[in-house]
Design brief:
The complex is a heterodimer. Chain A is α+β, with helices and mostly antiparallel strands. Chain A has a single domain, classed as Alpha-Beta Plaits (2-Layer Sandwich). In chain A, about 15% of the residues lie in helices and about 30% in strands. In chain A, the strands form 2 sheets. A 4-stranded antiparallel β-sheet of chain A has the order 2-3-5-4. A two-stranded antiparallel ribbon of chain A has the order 1-6. Chain B has a domain at about 1-125 and about 155-315 and about 445-460. Chain B has a 10-stranded mixed β-sheet, with helices on both faces. Classes of the chains: A alpha+beta, B alpha+beta.
């Protein structure tokens, strides 16, 4: 298979949210054609490794094939959460872009860079 | 009964948190007025900590404790909402829904409007219902409440039933404290469609509508832009969302014409999964929502159809957020810039750590280098910044119930002005009281939600609020 390596942010969207000391990151393929490649490569173990600095106690990936999306739930990565963290981003809402930095190999080229332009004016 | 039931309902989501844009409701109200069918405007302004902060406000002044931006959220649209029968549902009542209701009545009077029918939903406040020990026994995934002597706020997430009841009784405006965010939409839908409390798939659809609306613009292009990969037109004038929901549970997410932002599969799916853990089991007070079979389809410009929400019976317990004193957070910053800035900043950081180790050995002191490594660092790791850094802002932070130790840290950072490395400047220091929060699961038998339609005379509404707390002496619920 002759593929090309891209960072996730070139082919996928992500948004994170917090509940206490738990972070969730939704990862959404811009092109459903990339779903299988991401499912194969962006495993819970790989995401745990990307967040190793925060020592997650557990990482779970939920698959949503109908939406070409995944939901990662990372436990105990927010240094106590928004009410206890000494850090500047206690919510961890900037951390979706740590996930989007992960490199993946794809065979289908990404769609045009600006998505959703169909309905934008 | 069925013949007066609506076939389609529109709900606008005018706010996603207490600090959201206060002028978002204007375009929503204009669009809702054109909608043929029952229409509602919801304001979600109550994040986890907001309510505890409101409770502290109310202790200082019994007439406060509701969202301080209430006038700016509701004032500009009140006349149109009352004239067009766009009914308002908001959790901006926070720790004091009656005072918020009185404030809305005053706004109506000042504007010369007809007297609105205002309902308050109460019963979320567990003060006097469960003691600190009883709450501690119900804490999930932590032990924050174990040693807490005094509870600052304990509020359970109520469901949609009382909001629906208030609307059934003719309320123009429903003011709540803590309810599930999604209940602000589910309540109007149960009212308008007559959905039964065990019609799980429809309750799930209403919960999904609420979930998509509850963060305001996060479904219409807010919190989304990432140029050049994700473009959002007219960020400065984002339109906030409208959900048009059918009696069967299908819905269309859209936004007012002539506003900025975008509504498409990408924006809707990001919000659909926001703050969800297991997508097959999103727990709400009224239903367990399963989104794994949801379909999201673009049907026109800025119009997305969402179908396929499934529901299962509501969980046996209700979630409560309980806040206790978390001590103080101290933060102090100082800048080093220009030639050799990194080496001087590194020496400053080492100096602070060394002095604090001997003078407040139990205090964990975090060091960040803003602009180099701050968000991505951790308490454990000292920043490792590149030697070429020319503009380093050091930040130190510590939190403790020992405020003397925390203030000592701030003093030490300030002392770097003279006793630190060369060229340090721009010290800022701040001490912030902190709240620690815990989640508890509460049996429904302890929770008695209630609706009160308020008299037209506000003097009758606002009882004398004493200083209250559910300290460990206030038990008796069990």
């Amino acid at each position: 298979m002759s593929g090309r390596t891209v960072r996730l942010y070139e082919i996928a969207n992500a948004r994170s949210g917090d509940k206490g000391n738990r972070l969730n990151i939704a990862l959404v393929c811009r092109d459903p054609a990339h779903y299988a490649a991401i499912a194969r490569q962006v495993t819970a173990e790989r995401v745990a490794a990307a967040f190793a600095g925060r020592k997650p106690s557990r990482v779970v990936r939920y698959d949503l094939p109908k939406l070409a999306a995944f939901n990662f739930v990372l436990d105990d990565v927010l240094e106590g959460g928004v009410n206890a963290s000494l850090g500047l981003d206690g919510h961890g809402k900037s951390l979706s872009y740590v996930l989007l930095d992960i490199p993946v190999e794809i065979v289908n080229e990404p769609r045009a860079a600006v998505v959703g332009a169909v309905h934008a004016t | 009964m069925a013949d007066r039931m609506a076939t389609r309902v529109a709900i606008g989501g005018a706010a996603g948190f207490a600090g959201d844009r206060t002028d978002a409701a204007g375009p929503l109200v204009k669009a809702l007025a054109q909608f043929a069918g029952p229409r509602f405007l919801m304001f979600e302004t109550l994040a986890e900590r907001t309510l505890a902060l409101s409770q502290l406000e109310r202790r200082r002044d019994p007439q406060t404790g509701f969202n301080p931006a209430l006038d700016r959220f509701v004032g500009p649209v009140l006349a149109t909402c009352l004239r067009e029968r766009i009914r308002i549902i908001g959790n901006f009542g926070a720790a004091n829904p009656r005072a918020a209701a009185a404030r809305i009545l005053a706004l109506a009077q000042v504007q010369g409007l007809p007297v609105p029918r205002i309902a308050v939903v109460e019963g979320d406040d567990l003060a006097g219902v469960l003691s600190a020990q009883q709450l501690a026994a119900r804490e999930t995934g932590g032990a924050i409440l174990h040693d807490a002597s005094e509870i600052i706020a304990a509020n359970v997430y109520l469901g949609a039933g009382e909001i629906a009841q208030a609307l059934n009784e003719g309320a123009d405006i429903v003011v709540t404290g803590r309810v599930a965010d999604s209940a602000l939409a589910l309540g109007p839908l149960m009212h308008a469609f007559g959905w039964r409390a065990d019609d799980w798939d429809r309750l799930a659809a209403g919960t999904l509508a609420g979930h998509l609306l509850e963060c305001g613009s996060q479904v219409t292009g807010g919190y989304f832009a990432d140029p050049p990969y994700k473009a959002v037109p007219e960020m400065a004038e984002l339109g906030y969302p409208i959900a048009e929901i059918e009696a069967g549970g299908g819905m269309v997410i859209t936004k007012p014409a002539g506003t900025g932002g975008r509504v498409d599969r990408a924006t809707v799916i990001e919000q659909l999964l926001y703050e969800i853990h297991d997508p097959a089991a999103y727990l709400a007070p009224d239903v367990v929502l399963d989104v794994t079979d949801v379909a999201v389809e673009e049907i026109g410009p800025d119009r997305v159809r969402v179908t396929g929400a499934r529901g299962r019976p509501a969980p046996p317990t209700l979630k409560a957020t309980v806040c206790v004193d978390g001590g103080v957070l101290g933060e102090a910053e100082i800048s080093y810039a220009g030639a050799n800035a990194a080496a001087r900043a590194r020496l400053a950081a080492a100096t602070i750590q060394e002095r604090m180790r001997s003078r407040a050995p139990d205090l964990v002191v975090r060091t960040d280098a803003i602009g180099v490594v701050s968000v991505l660092g951790s308490n454990a790791s000292a920043p490792d910044w590149p030697a070429e850094a020319r503009d380093v802002r050091l930040r130190f932070a510590a939190q403790s119930h020992d405020s003397v130790a925390v203030e000592r840290l701030l003093d030490e950072v300030e002392a770097l002005y003279c006793a630190g490395p060369a060229g340090g400047s721009g010290v800022r220091r701040r001490l912030t009281p902190r709240l620690a929060s815990a989640s508890c699961l509460i049996e429904r038998t302890f929770v008695s939600p209630r609706v009160t339609m308020l008299e037209h005379d506000p003097e009758k509404w606002v009882p004398v609020f004493g200083k209250r707390s559910c300290s460990n002496k206030a038990g008796g619920g069990a």
